[in-house]
Amino acid sequence: MIIDDLPSLLSSKHPDLQTDLTHWIDEWKRSADNIEQLRFLVDKWLGNVWVNDANSVNALMQAWQSFKVQALDGVHSQTMNERLYAFGLFDAWDAATSEGRQKIMVKVLANA
C-alpha cells in the first residue's frame, strides 16, 4: 500500500471524508514536513472523524497500521525509490530542481 491508497479505503458512502483525507495528504506532500509529521497528521485525522461503517473503519485502520510499520517505521531500510513510491512523491521528485530534491530527501528522512 502507498499513502495515496488510504482515502480509497473509506466507504464510498463517505466521499467528503475521502476528499478531506486526500486534501491533508496532498497538503503534507507540498509542505516541508517530514514523514513523522505525516504520521501525526493521519493519526490525528483518524482520531477526529466518525465513520459509521465498521468494515470501512477496520480496513482503514488495519491498512494504516500496516503502512506505519512498513513505510514509516521501516523507512531506514528502504531505498530512495521505495520511499518515493510509498509516500507518493515520484512526480514531485521528477519535477524538482536539485534544491527541491534535497528537500524531498529531508522529507523522507534520506538526508543522513
Structure description:
The chain has 112 residues and is mostly helical. The chain has one domain (14-107). The chain is built from six helices and no strands. Helix 1 (15-30) runs antiparallel to helix 2. It is elongated and about 45 Å long. The model has no long low-confidence stretch (mean pLDDT 95).
Task: Provide a concise account of the structure shown.
The chain is mostly helical and 112 residues long. The chain has one domain.
Which terms summarize this structure?
112 residues, single chain
What is the element layout, followed by pairings?
Blueprint: H1 15-30, H2 35-47, H3 54-73, H4 80-86, H5 90-95, H6 98-107
Helix pairs in contact: 1-2
SSE succession: HHHHHH
Sequence stretches where pLDDT stays below 50 over 5 or more residues: none
Number-wise, the strands total 0
Shape: elongated
What fraction of residues sit in β-strands?
under 5%
**Count of helical regions:** 6
Largest sheet data? none
Whole-Å distance between the termini? Answer: 25 Å
Count of spatially separate domains: 1
- Structural class computed from helices and strand pairing: mainly alpha
Percent helix? 55-70%
Determine the mean pLDDT.
95
